[in-house]
């Protein structure tokens, strides 16, 4: 829920999202990666995060969520692409919508990889660097969502036992058996998946920390950074590279101070990965600087 839907739309379009439908108080936006939509905003009196959605592989998954995990009765969705959904509620009241049968869009082809001339490795001869369009980023998908939580253990258990996720890395403050931050990935067995799809940080509140959208590479991120700067939007943190997950990040505030992040070059893991456990006080947040991450975590 946002306090000025038109202003949110202007920010999100500058960031790279495309408007699919805007009707009444509701705005649906998509990436260029083939999703029917991956961001929904609704005009309200206050800024508030309601929840997030996942597509599932079968109608049976929806039925199982209703039968075994307290999902709401299955409904037909009236958003772009339709589909059917049930909604689960997390331990702290966030909505996790599970969706089956949504009709997706045609994905836009990725841009050509940059051919880089580096010391000892020359690959681009008598040719200028390829042209990239200026302007908003080309976003390919919503890759992960960061959440604030009050109770790390309750949320971690729910994500693993109800949502079927795996804990890739965890950070602890006092003792290794009391994690306070976790990076959770999807469980697709031997298939390679992103290092994390959900990030949870126990910081005394419940809600959205950030939304993160994949772009082509870090040149695309630097271009987006400069473009958003020219447009007068408010930067939060980046461009930098996280040690856990390895991805390059760049974080911006939307008009309600929700964080929107671009990322590229994420680590991929599969079921051979064992959870990494790290002391939070020894864990850097950015490989490229010693910036204190306070402004990244402040509400
Ligand atoms: Fe992120």
TrEMBL record:
Domain VOC: 1-101, 141-265
Keywords per UniProt: Metal-binding
Gene Ontology BP, a term: L-methylmalonyl-CoA metabolic process
Pfam families noted in UniProt: Glyoxalase
InterPro entries in the cross-refs: Glyas_Bleomycin-R_OHBP_Dase, Glyas_Fos-R_dOase_dom, MMCE/EMCE_epimerase, VOC_core
SUPFAM superfamilies: Glyoxalase/Bleomycin resistance protein/Dihydroxybiphenyl dioxygenase
A single MF term (Gene Ontology): metal ion binding
Residues annotated as signal peptide: none
Entry protein name: 2,3-dihydroxybiphenyl 1,2-dioxygenase
Organism of derivation: Novosphingobium endophyticum
């Amino acid at each position: 829920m946002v306090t000025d839907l038109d202003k949110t739309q202007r920010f999100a379009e500058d960031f790279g999202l495309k408007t699919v439908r805007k009707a009444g108080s509701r705005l649906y936006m998509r990436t260029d990666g083939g999703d029917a939509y991956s961001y929904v905003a609704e005009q309200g009196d206050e800024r508030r995060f309601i929840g997030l959605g996942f597509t599932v592989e079968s109608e049976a998954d929806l039925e199982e969520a209703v039968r075994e995990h307290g999902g709401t009765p299955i409904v037909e969705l009236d958003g772009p692409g339709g589909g059917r959904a049930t909604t689960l509620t997390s331990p702290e009241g966030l909505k996790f919508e599970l969706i089956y049968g949504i009709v997706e869009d045609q994905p836009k082809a990725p841009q050509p990889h940059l051919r880089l001339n580096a010391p000892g490795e020359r690959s681009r001869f008598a040719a200028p660097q390829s042209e990239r369009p200026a302007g908003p980023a080309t976003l390919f998908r919503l890759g992960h969502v960061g959440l604030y939580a009050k109770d790390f253990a309750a949320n971690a258990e729910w994500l693993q036992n109800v949502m079927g996720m795996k804990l890739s890395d965890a950070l602890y403050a006092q003792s290794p058996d009391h994690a306070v931050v976790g990076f959770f990935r999807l469980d697709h067995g031997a298939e390679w998946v992103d290092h994390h799809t959900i990030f949870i940080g126990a910081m005394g509140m419940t809600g959205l920390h950030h939304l993160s959208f994949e772009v082509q590479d870090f040149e695309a991120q630097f271009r987006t950074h400069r473009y958003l700067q020219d447009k007068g939007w408010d930067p939060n943190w980046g461009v930098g590279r996280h040690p856990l997950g390895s991805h390059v990040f760049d974080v911006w505030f939307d008009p309600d101070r929700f964080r929107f992040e671009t990322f590229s070059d994420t680590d991929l893991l599969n079921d051979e990965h064992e959870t990494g456990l790290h002391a939070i006080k020894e864990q850097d947040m950015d490989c490229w600087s010693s910036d204190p991450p306070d402004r990244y975590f402040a509400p």
